[in-house]
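Box 3.1 — From sequence to structure: DUF2891 domain-containing protein
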Amino acid sequence: MNAFEELSPDALRSGRADALDDAVATALAAHPLDGVETEYPHYRGAVEGPEAPPPPSEDHPVFYGCFDWHSAVHSHWALVRAL
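Predicted structure (token representation):
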């Protein structure tokens, strides 16, 4: 399913939630919801030291899903906007 097939570009750019019907909103929320509790794989950068860094769920308890913290924040924001 292409969630954007039936939406006009103007409706998408408006940022208004009423431009999306329930089916489209559900389709767009599927990926962010999958990542909310997905801890690994996770990018931590080049950590080279004798001690292992804490797991993402301890380091960033709210925003640990997705590949990195930044993507997790964007995914959560997309879900909030869909409400």
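Summary of the box: The longest helix spans residues 22-35.
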